[in-house]
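Task: complex structure prediction.
Instruction: return structure tokens for all chains below.
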Amino acid sequence: MIPLPFYLLLAAALFCIGLFGALARRNAIAILMGIELMLNAVNINLIAFWRYIQPAAPTWDLAGQIFALFVITLAAAEAAIALALVIAIYRSRDTVNVEEVDLMKW
Amino acid sequence: MELAIFYLFASIAIVAALGMVVLRNAVHSALSLAVVFVALAALYVLLNAPFIAAAQVMIYAGAILILFVFVIMLLSPRVDQGAGALKWQRPLAALCGLVFAVELAIVAASALLPTERGPFTPERLAEIGDVQAVGALLFTDFLLPFEITSLLLLVAMVGVIVLAKKR
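Output:
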């Protein structure tokens, strides 16, 4: 039997690694991968809490799995849009380095 | 036994996640991310959520990651250079991540968490049927969010086509 904090600590570690990746990388695609990792960490929490907590109402007893499913769907939509943006940026500026995409900054 | 499996896949996930962040080559990063996704799917099985585990492998490792690798191959971006205009960015990002990790660890260790597992044993899930129960819930209590999700996917699809179209 695995205590619940083990899952929460694993999720926290993965979330923070994803946060570091999203903040430290310059490649736009690598930043997106960090964001995907953070979304995954949230999913672990959802499923772990679903497994360990008693449901308030019997009809909602699988709500944790449903939420995780919605997060996966949103991650798919987000990845598709963001990668299309990366392709559009690459076409117009010939780079995926976020430091060089500063047209709106100045 | 259960604990050993948890440690195995958790350590695989964390090492692969670190590899994803540290490796300079984008293709290597993407492959490390695939390892993370599969390890997490194994943990979902351990948590008695086989449907989510299957969805994880199919959607994350199957669809999203293929999309990433496809874009990486299409653009073949140069690898991240270590020295850029923002040299202080990397230590600052590490600091942010560490502070956040410590906060989360304190909360997870001190919060009042249930020590017993809930009612969803493998026997109970076999009785109500995991996929059947999720599907029934999606089409009854969560029907509106479900339909809004289809709208969201449609908008995302149209947006991607418009954004990626050659002008």
